[in-house]
Amino acid sequence: MKAIVAVDKNWGIGKNNDLLFSIPLDMAFFREQTKGKVVVMGSKTLKSFPNSKPLKNRTNIVFHRGNEVYEGCIVVKDLTELGKALESYNNDDVFVIGGGSIYNLLLEYCSEALITKVDADGDATIFFENLDNNKDWVCIKEDAILESNGYKFKFTTYKNKNVKTLK
Questions:
Q1: Could you say which of 101, 116, 128, 162 has the lowest number of CB atoms within 10 Å?
Q2: pLDDT tens-digit profile of 135-161?
Q3: What pTM was computed for the model?
Q4: pLDDT, tens digit, for every residue of 28-46?
Q5: Which residues of 143-154 are buried (b: 16+ CB within 10 A; e: fewer)?
Q6: 77-101, pLDDT tens digit by residue?
Q7: Using CA atoms, how far apart are residues 98 and 128, in angstroms rounded to an integer?
Q8: How many CB atoms lie within 10 A of CB 31?
Q9: What is the pLDDT of residue 84?
């Protein structure tokens, strides 16, 4: 399982149930990485999508403890149900896409994190763990700085040296 997220310079990821930045190159990267794959998210993240609809051309798994049914999605209530839902998928084809509480819950089960680092302060209220300060994570790839829509950013890849197994 991998996490994929864009962070500001303070590792902020969101505010008011929305992304901090609109960066077309980052959105294209996200689509390229997750198309045809499995995306795991919380119900608030799903509701933040246009018309609260699941992402096309992906298997959408939504964490939700209530009884709502989300059309076109697999709904799981806990880690045990997620483990069962993921049994038939290749672990490298599963991407955690948010929000903050889902990243916090699943980060230790991720083998990699694809982090778009934006050189700006997005005035975030929701944050991703700063992997530079986590001894279990190491940055293994850092692309050159790009610019899009007025923002400077770079794509980075972190590897988890202590991946936990989802049972």
A1: 162
A2: 999 999 999 999 999 999 999 999 999
A3: 0.96
A4: 999 999 999 999 999 999 9
A5: eeeeebeebebe
A6: 999 999 999 999 999 999 999 999 9
A7: 9
A8: 13
A9: 96
Six-digit token string for 121 = 């302060």
3-class DSSP state for residue 74?
strand
**Inter-residue contact 91 to 125 (CB < 8 Å):** no
Tokens of 100: 């903050």
Lookup result for tokens 């763990």? 129
Measured between alpha carbons, how far is 87 from 100 in angstroms, rounded to an integer?
24
**Residue 5 corresponds to which amino acid?**
V
Q: Under DSSP, is residue 128 helix (H, G, I), strand (E, B) or coil?
A: coil
Rounded Cα distance between 146 and 64, Å, is 36
The Cβ of residue 15 has, within 10 Å, a number of other Cβ atoms equal to 14
